[in-house]
Specification:
With about 180 residues, the chain is of the alpha+beta class. Helix content is about 25%, strand content about 35%. Strands 1-2-3-4-5-6-8-7 form an eight-stranded mixed sheet, sandwiched between helices. Helix 1 crosses helix 2. It is globular, with a radius of gyration of 16 Å. The chain starts with 6 loop residues before the first strand and ends in an 8-residue tail after the last strand. About 30% of the residues are buried. The model has no long low-confidence stretch (mean pLDDT about 95).
Length: about 180
């Protein structure tokens, strides 16, 4: 993961995710409300969060950055991407510590990731998969210009039951276009 670039923004910075981020990120992974829409329930112990990060960092299919404030290196969230298939299509994911919900920091961080994936790495399409009831995430994707492309019925088996998925897509030609 050390080959990932640091991406500087106005209020936030994206840097490679590290195992040392576990204590700060446990504020997300240990928060039952924050984890409602994930495939797994909140993690009870810091050791569980550490194990989750070790697993995530060892995967070759996802690349993950920690979201930090521009003035503080403490992780307040994550953004991640992986190439879904050859042909320059990537899926993204993101999370943010509750204390920063509603501040626009997630929008800034995901925008920075989109800029990097489209402009530097040359992806032609980015997509995200959300729970239809995850209003905050669905709203963020809408504000970023993603289009709702479909609903996959009974797509995920999660800690809250079998759930549908919304599939959101954004083309490079649409990124930055007036909404």
């Amino acid at each position: 993961m050390s080959d990932l670039p640091v991406i500087e923004g106005k209020r936030v910075r994206l840097r490679p995710l590290r195992i040392y981020d576990a204590p700060a990120l446990h504020a997300i992974y240990g928060d039952a409300s924050a984890m409602t829409w994930w495939t797994h329930a909140a993690l009870e112990r810091l050791e569980d969060t550490e194990a989750k990060l070790v697993d995530n960092l060892s995967r070759n299919d996802w690349r993950a950055w920690a979201i930090t404030l521009a003035t503080d290196d403490t992780a307040i969230g994550t953004v991640a991407a992986h190439e879904e298939r050859q042909g320059r299509v990537a899926e993204i994911g993101y999370s943010l510590v509750r204390a920063h919900w509603g501040t626009g920091l997630a929008r800034e961080a995901v925008s920075m990731l989109l800029d990097y994936l489209f402009e530097v790495e040359g992806y032609r399409r980015i997509f995200a998969d959300t729970d239809p009831d995850n209003a905050a995430s669905n709203g963020l994707l809408t504000r970023l210009g993603f289009k709702l492309e479909g609903r996959l019925r009974a797509h995920w088996e999660t800690h809250i039951g079998v759930r549908d998925s919304f599939i959101w897509g954004l083309l490079k030609s649409e990124w930055g276009a007036p909404l």
